């Protein structure tokens, strides 16, 4: 299976250049002021504390002995809480991607190895029978990076087995678009943007990555709204869920952002097309941004609950897009509004509250993907600031 020199995604340096990447990330994170829309990094709102956490027993001198003292402290707490969460396959992959972009290479290797320990029938991270091909491939970029970094053939072999499943599966429509859900269900879902195309691109399978993206768009995208429906029921040729689920649109925006980064420069026409797709969905979401920096769970339905993860996902997308030059800096004001709102929801134990929450994603609560996108958002903000 071909590999790409860009399979590492966004890390700033390889470990041989920076063995103290985590300490440096946490040390510098709280010291950077973006100077955008009058919002300084150090001035982000203090986190919320629940009553149960306020009454918890705390060890003197513990990291968690009180509210975070800085952004650096808050990021450390979110990271600790995230690692302690139980995770299904897409959650393992999303958290691993956050670690990869943070430069937490030791943890990336650990997460990748754990995905291989749970590899079943070629699929990564299989727990509890949860085996959708797209979700299982979500950690593929991190596995490829771990193999490149360590030279351990177990990672290359695991990635090849996962790629073989993708290549040979019959669980696809007549156009070759892979269904997101586990057999026998045949649903195309917006979640898949983040799970499958980035692994294919990281593995050098650029044409297949772009083919899947175009297929997802064909069935889910609404040009007039600039938003994606959540679930297309292929056998019945109708939407299973036509709603513009906020996090589903966030998956699309962030997944497209990753593929843009992973495509080589000789695919500039493809990059530019995806850049246009990113701008469309960002604009589509921002039309429904609330003054408090949150979105409704279904972005155009004010009767649905208010949640924060889409804010993190779109902020991440904006920071990456502005840094790469394909989104205008004018977007940063709203990105900072959303970032501030998200930071205000981090409690003293490092849990990002009021994201679209586990286990059924039908209420504001906590979730590994919400934790991961907080870390991705803050990493992208830091990288943008350092690039200036």
Q: Give me the count of strands.
A: 9
The CATH architecture would be Alpha/alpha barrel
Quickly count the domains. 1
Shape: globular
Mean pLDDT across every amino acid position: 88
* Sheet with most strands: 3 strands, antiparallel
What is the helix/strand order? Answer: HHHHHHHHEHHHEEEEHHEEHHEEH
Distance between the termini: 37 Å
Radius of gyration: 20 Å
- CATH structural class: Mainly Alpha
Helix content: 40-55%
Number of helices: 16
As laid out across the biggest beta sheet, the strand order is 1-4-5
Runs with pLDDT <50, length 5+? 1-19, 30-43, 45-61
Strand content is 5-15%
Fold-level CATH name: Glycosyltransferase
Class by alpha and beta content: mainly alpha
Plain-language structure description:
The protein has 388 residues and is mainly α. The chain has a single domain (74-387), classed as Glycosyltransferase (Alpha/alpha barrel), CATH 1.50.10. It is 50% helix and 6% strand. It has 16 helices and nine strands. The protein has helices at 21-29, 51-54, 71-83, 89-102, 105-117, 133-136, 140-150, 153-168, 192-195, 197-202, 206-220, 246-262, 268-286, 309-324, 332-343, 368-387, and strands spanning 187-189, 221-222, 227-228, 231-233, 238-241, 295-296, 306-307, 355-356, 364-365. The strands form four sheets. It has a three-stranded antiparallel beta sheet with strand order 1-4-5. It has a two-stranded antiparallel sheet with strand order 2-3. Strand 2 and strand 3 (227-228) form a beta hairpin. Helix 7 (140-150) runs antiparallel to helix 8 (153-168). The radius of gyration is 20 Å and the shape is globular. The chain starts with 20 loop residues before the first helix and ends with a helix.
């Amino acid at each position: 299976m071909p590999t790409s020199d860009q399979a590492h995604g966004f890390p700033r340096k390889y470990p041989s250049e920076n063995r103290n990447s985590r300490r440096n990330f946490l040390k510098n994170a709280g010291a950077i002021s973006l100077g955008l829309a009058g919002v300084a990094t150090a001035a982000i709102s203090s986190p919320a504390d629940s009553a149960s956490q306020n009454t918890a027993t705390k060890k003197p001198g513990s990291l968690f002995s009180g509210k975070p003292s800085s952004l650096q402290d808050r990021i450390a707490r979110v990271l600790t809480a995230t690692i302690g969460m139980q995770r299904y396959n897409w959650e393992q992959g999303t958290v691993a991607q956050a670690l990869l972009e943070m430069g937490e290479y030791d943890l990336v290797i650990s997460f990748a190895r754990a995905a291989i320990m749970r590899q079943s029938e070629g699929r990564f991270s299989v727990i509890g029978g949860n085996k959708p091909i797209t979700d299982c491939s979500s950690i593929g970029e991190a596995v490829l990076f771990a193999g490149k970094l360590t030279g351990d053939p177990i990672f290359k072999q695991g990635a090849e087995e996962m790629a073989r499943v993708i290549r040979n599966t019959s669980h696809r429509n007549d156009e070759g678009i892979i269904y997101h859900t586990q057999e026998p269900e045949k649903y195309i879902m917006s979640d898949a943007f983040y799970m499958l195309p980035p692994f294919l691109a990281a593995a050098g399978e650029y044409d297949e990555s772009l083919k899947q993206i175009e297929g997802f768009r064909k069935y889910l995208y609404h040009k007039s709204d600039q938003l994606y429906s959540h679930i297309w029921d292929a056998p019945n040729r109708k939407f299973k869920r036509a709603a513009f689920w906020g996090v589903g649109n966030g998956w699309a925006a962030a997944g497209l952002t990753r593929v843009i980064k992973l495509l080589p420069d000789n695919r500039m026409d493809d990059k530019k097309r995806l850049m246009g797709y990113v701008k469309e969905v960002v604009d589509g979401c921002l039309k429904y941004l609330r003054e408090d920096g949150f979105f409704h769970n279904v972005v155009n339905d004010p009767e649905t609950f208010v949640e924060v993860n889409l804010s993190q996902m779109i902020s991440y997308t904006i920071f990456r897009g502005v840094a790469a030059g394909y989104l205008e800096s004018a977007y940063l004001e709203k990105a900072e509004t959303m970032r501030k709102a998200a930071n205000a929801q981090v409690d003293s134990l490092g849990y990002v509250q009021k994201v679209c929450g586990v286990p059924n994603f039908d209420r504001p609560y906590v979730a590994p993907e919400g934790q991961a996108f907080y870390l991705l958002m803050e990493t992208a903000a830091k990288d943008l600031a350092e690039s200036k």
